[in-house]
Amino acid sequence: MGLNAVMGYVQSLLDGLPVPGSTGPLTCFIVPPDPDTNVNGTPRASVWSSDGTEDRLSGPRVVPGEPSTAGWKNEWHSLSIFLWYPMADEEPDEDSAFPGVVDAVMAALRSAPDPAVITDPLTGIQTELVDLGESLAWRMVPPMALASQRWEFFACELTARCLEFIRS
């Protein structure tokens, strides 16, 4: 139900994020563009919901005089945030620039508002997102030489779990 809302919310947190030592702020997408369109060598990201689960909160449906958990569902999202940064070989901070991008994205997720009310852009349904940035994992790949051999391509997949509460 909330895939559009969750991915869009995370994109809005990361798009334009200042990145120390880079040639510009982070540009974040949902669907990534062709890598060849990044001629200026700026840090980029894309957000995709890689997997998730949904279940109903356990509890009695109706207990007279008490609040009920019935009608609420949990949706766990595991988001893949793909980071990439083509960088010229003569970049003076080449050893630390890309890890700095990863650190900046993780810091932005760690400090995201919790809880956050998000709205699905297609349906207008509002849900509540919690625990974004509480569980993060990353996998950086070794730098790869690009065709000209004067540029290197840095990449990382960062995984962030979050919980969405849905009234249903």
Question: Any key phrases for this structure?
Answer:
single chain, 168 residues, alpha+beta, STM4215-like, 6-stranded mixed sheet
Report on this model:
- With 168 residues, the chain is of the alpha+beta class.
- The protein has one domain (3-167): STM4215-like.
- It contains 2 helices and 6 strands; from the N terminus they run αβββαβββ.
- The chain has a 6-stranded mixed sheet.
Summed up, what is this model?
The chain is built from 2 helices and 6 strands, in the order αβββαβββ. With 168 residues, it is of the alpha+beta class. It has one domain: 2-Layer Sandwich (STM4215-like), CATH 3.30.2000.
Helices, strands, pairings?
Elements: H1 3-14, E1 27-29, E2 44-56, E3 72-88, H2 94-110, E4 116-119, E5 126-145, E6 151-167
Parallel strand pairs: 1-2
Antiparallel strand pairs: 2-3, 3-6, 4-5, 5-6
